[in-house]
Specification:
By secondary structure, this protein is α+β, with helices and mostly antiparallel strands. The chain has one domain: Ribonuclease P, Pop5 subunit (Alpha-Beta Plaits, 2-Layer Sandwich), CATH 3.30.70.3250. The protein is 32% helix and 29% strand. It has three helices and four strands; from the N terminus they run E-H-E-E-H-E-H. Helix 1 packs across helix 2. The longest helix is centred in the first third of the chain and has 15 residues. The radius of gyration is 13 Å and the shape is globular.
């Protein structure tokens, strides 16, 4: 049976960051807050640097842990930017439609 996936949309608040810096900040936050969470399905699927919004894919059993880790990011790169969780979706298409469209 195929594993169930969830897509968590987030926004960079308080500065700008590259895709690499966001991915690194998420991994570091997970290492600090939840060192035993399964990272096999964790992937930064979409990141739009111009709007500062992106989507992370994870397993359906670790959604809460990933949300806490995203909210726990206080520093991205050299700047003081942080991450804010926008919402969770079951498909990447719905996540893009709901959270990444222009507001």
């Amino acid at each position: 049976m195929r594993p169930k996936r969830r897509y968590i949309a987030f926004e960079v608040v308080g500065g700008e960051a590259s895709r690499w810096e966001v991915r690194r900040a998420i991994e570091n936050s997970l290492r600090v807050h939840y060192p035993r969470v399964d990272r096999a399905m964790l992937k930064l699927v979409v990141y739009e640097a111009d709007s500062g919004r992106g989507v992370v894919r994870c397993g359906h059993r670790c959604v809460d842990e990933i949300k806490v880790a995203l909210a726990g990011v206080q520093k991205i790169g050299a700047g003081g930017a942080s991450l804010s969780v926008l919402g969770v979706s079951g498909t990447i298409r719905a996540a893009k439609r709901k959270f990444l469209s222009a507001r």
